[in-house]
User: What shape does this take?
Amino acid sequence: MKEFALLFRNESNVGSEITPQQMELMSSKWQHWVGGIAAQGKLVSPGSRLGFNGRVVQPGDNVVQRPYAEINQILSGFHVIKTSTLDEATEIANDCPILSIGGSVEVREIIPMNN
Assistant: This one.
């Protein structure tokens, strides 16, 4: 089995448009989706949500005061899963609740570091 990171991206202002009721419904959808992955034994790490503030350190002592300041989408969280193939990981990502609010999921194979 290989490990894949599911990187969740959405608009940087998406949180300001969601009502508490919508947030509760979305949380329920996320719990159901992640629970299904865990029930299959494919969840390696439930990951975390990421805050909307941050910095990007670039070469030459250049620091951008928030992540991806030049675009509207930001990385908002991640999970690590294990599947046999990239296609299988993509199929799991295809059911992610973030897609219902215009977000996206980037699926990336994790390459283990050799000691």
